[in-house]
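To illustrate the input format used throughout this study, we show a single complete record. The first block contains the structure-token representation of the backbone; no residue identities are included at this stage. The design step must infer an amino acid for every position from geometry alone.
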């Protein structure tokens, strides 16, 4: 697989809930395709000079989403490789609009599998007495947003190499 000739969009944008493996898959996919990888959560923290939990604490979720929308739009306008979105990005109308024309892969994961991957980590949205139930509730509320922006859906519970191979296969099919 070689990079496409269209230069105005990223090659692949990964979307999915926390724990779906966007950063892990994105890094592996970018390496396989010999392109750059941008994680928008990392870019938000770099630009803001604060961690995402710090932004949530100081600015609330609405403040974070505004920063996220600006950052994601900038990244989508400039990145040419693989981009991993934050888990809530597709819930923001401005981000959904910016994704038009992008090859968006939804890394779909069950609530049980996804929560197992993030249990015990510092996730502001899971600050709850029952983080597993909170995870399940938020995921259920976002599934339609993920599906709505996706051009391709991959089972994220598979091994990373399988997920990467699936994405590359789809890119090759679209190229021909």
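Output of the design step:
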């Amino acid at each position: 697989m070689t990079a496409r000739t269209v230069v105005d969009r990223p090659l692949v944008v990964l979307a999915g809930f926390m724990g779906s493996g966007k950063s892990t898959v994105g890094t592996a996919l970018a390496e396989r395709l010999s392109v750059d990888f941008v994680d928008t959560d990392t870019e938000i923290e770099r630009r803001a000079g604060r961690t995402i939990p710090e932004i949530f604490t100081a600015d609330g979720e609405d403040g974070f989403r505004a920063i996220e929308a600006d950052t994601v739009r900038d990244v989508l306008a400039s990145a040419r490789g693989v981009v991993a979105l934050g888990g809530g990005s597709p819930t923001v109308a401005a981000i959904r609009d910016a994704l038009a024309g992008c090859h968006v892969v939804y890394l779909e994961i069950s609530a049980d599998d996804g929560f197992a991957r993030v249990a015990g980590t510092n996730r502001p949205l899971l600050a709850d007495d029952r983080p597993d139930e909170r995870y399940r509730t938020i995921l259920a509320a976002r599934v339609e947003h993920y599906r709505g922006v996706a051009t391709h859906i991959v089972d994220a519970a598979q091994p990373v190499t399988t997920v990467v191979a699936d994405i590359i296969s789809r890119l090759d099919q679209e190229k021909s």
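Structural context for interpreting the output: Confidence is low (pLDDT under 50) at residues 1-7. The CA atoms of residues 69 and 92 lie 7 Å apart.
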